[in-house]
Structures are given as C-alpha cells and as structure tokens.
TrEMBL record:
Protein name: LytTR family DNA-binding domain-containing protein
Keyword DNA-binding: yes
GO MF entry, a single one: DNA binding
SUPFAM superfamilies named among the record's database cross-references: CheY-like (SSF52172)
Length: 220
C-alpha cells in the first residue's frame, strides 16, 4: 500500500485527486493540504511514500518544497503548466501530471510510484516512532525491553523510561522485528534483553514479565 498526501493551493484540484485516489486500491491518500507550509509540517511528523505536489503555489513553490523532502519520498508533480516538466524531472520526480488529468493517467502514475517503491532497497529498521501525548518519539529497538497491552493502550518499557501510546496490540506485533515475541496475551518481550528464564516468568533487567502456558514454547 502506498501512503500518500496531496499539496495544492487549488481546492478543486485536491477534490480531483481525492476522487481518483479513492479508485486506486493500492493507494492510501492520508491527507490533503491547500497550504504548502502545513503540508511540509505534516511531512516532518509523518512518513509517507508519495507526495502529489502542485508546482505553482504561493509562499513556496512545489519545486522548492520537493528539494526539502527526504530522499526516499516519491514526488509526483501536478500542474497546469507544461513548462515545468523539465525542471520536475531534473529533481528526479517519479512522474509529472499535467492538469486536467484523467483517472487512467493518474493510475499510471500511481503504478509507476509502486514500481519505484518496490525497487528501493529494503533495510530492516532499527527503531520505531511511538505516538504519545507529547508527540512522536523515536525509540531504538535496542532500548526497548518489553511492551504491555492494557485495553486500547500499550506501555513501552524502555531501559530508562516508560512511554504510553494509544494503539492496538495487533498493529504493534506487525511493526516489531522477529526478536520481539509474545510470552503472554498482554506482553511482548525483546528476547535480546533476557537475563533469566523461569517456568512462569522472565527477567529483563529489574523487570519481571509473566509467561503463560500457551506461549511457553516461544523461548525454547
């Protein structure tokens, strides 16, 4: 699934992108912005795969904004001016959509972005970002001892602090690498931080986490 946002100072253009995006099954359009600065602030906090970006905007042009994005972020320029095409490809844009563009052309652009994403080298991440009441906090997997679920919240116990985030345990399981395993329906532990394994519990530093019968085999 491609995670995307759109930035365009024309609301009508954003409505067209939203309508087209709703018909592309592998595209998740997470937000749209008519203000380029607001869009840039969003990108500082959230990771996306693709940005549909208008070029001719007030305050900051799409060309200048694209140069500020992380290298791995794919850019699809959307504009009514064909003169910008050459400059767009100089910035290694994934594609260039000339307004007004039909669904078929939009879909082709999305497919190109999907292909580019699949060609990018995949590296196993060494961290995750945890959303808390104070914002998103970067946490290294090496600092994370265990996670505990409580209703719609998860507690992340780090070596030197504790963080609480509103999320499902299932989403967390899909995010963590394979050396994090369940020892209990409410606990996920970092096997690399184990100090001692007992029959009904494990020790990670000064902390003790239970092992239920149904999960007893994961540490063998």
């Amino acid at each position: 699934m491609l995670k995307a946002i759109a930035i365009d100072d024309e609301n009508m253009a954003l409505e067209v992108i939203k309508a087209h995006a709703g018909k592309v099954p592998f595209l998740d359009l997470q937000a749209v912005f008519s203000d380029a600065i607001q869009g840039l602030e969003y990108l500082k906090k959230e990771e996306v795969d693709v940005v549909f970006l208008d070029i001719n905007m007030p305050d900051i042009s799409g060309i200048d904004l694209a140069a500020m994005l992380p290298k791995e972020t794919l850019v699809i320029f959307t504009t009514a001016y064909s003169d910008f095409a050459v400059k767009g490809f100089e910035l290694e844009a994934t594609d260039y959509l000339l307004k007004p563009f039909p669904l078929s052309r939009f879909l082709k652009s999305c497919q190109r972005a999907q292909e580019w994403k699949e060609l990018q080298p995949s590296e196993e991440p060494d961290h995750l970002f945890i959303k808390t009441s104070e914002g998103k906090i970067k946490v290294s997997f090496d600092d994370l001892l265990f996670c505990e679920a409580a209703g719609n919240y998860v507690t992340f116990q780090l070596v030197d602090q504790k963080l609480i985030s509103r999320m499902t345990f299932k989403d967390l399981e899909n995010t963590l690498p394979e050396h994090f395993v369940k020892t209990h329906r409410s606990y996920l532990i970092n096997k690399r931080k184990l100090d001692r394994i007992e029959r009904h519990q494990v020790h990670l530093g000064k902390y003790v986490v239970p092992i239920s019968v149904s999960f007893s085999g994961v540490l063998e």
